[in-house]
Recover the amino acids of this structure.
């Protein structure tokens, strides 16, 4: 599986239903977030429309989240945009100042329930599952 190189494709994840968001720590030097999602059937990108995807944010250097529980509806992705908050950006600069390499990918994921996930990572992988939603 190759990393996602056209990051504009993430726009098609709008309204995708999130079954789970996992913080994977089995590799001490390579931590990942994995989202198990189902893309909206009318998302606008035929290879993903209505499909079940595993989206892996690889080599997470730093992340920050505000997560809301106690919801009565499915969790959906609202937007994914380039960039992170000023506070997290300052922390990245601090890490760089002490010699820690910080990857270039910086995203803020906003979910319909108000949850916000800021991530600085090295790569993104999207695996289309064989089963349709």
């Amino acid at each position: 599986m190759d990393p996602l190189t056209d990051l504009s494709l993430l726009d098609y994840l709008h309204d995708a239903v999130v079954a789970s968001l996992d913080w994977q720590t089995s590799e001490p030097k390579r931590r990942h977030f994995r989202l198990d999602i189902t893309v909206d059937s009318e998302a606008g990108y035929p290879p993903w429309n209505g499909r079940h995807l595993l989206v892996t944010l690889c080599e997470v250097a730093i992340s920050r989240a505000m997560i809301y529980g106690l919801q009565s509806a499915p969790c959906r992705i609202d937007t994914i945009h380039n960039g992170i908050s000023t506070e997290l950006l300052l922390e990245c600069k601090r890490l760089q100042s002490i010699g820690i390499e910080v990857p270039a990918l910086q995203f803020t994921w906003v979910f319909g329930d108000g949850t916000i996930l800021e991530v600085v990572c090295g790569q993104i992988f999207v695996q289309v599952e064989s089963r349709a939603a």
Q: What stands out?
A: The chain has one helix and eight strands. The mean pLDDT is 93. The CA atoms of residues 15 and 77 lie 5 Å apart. The helical segments are 86-97.
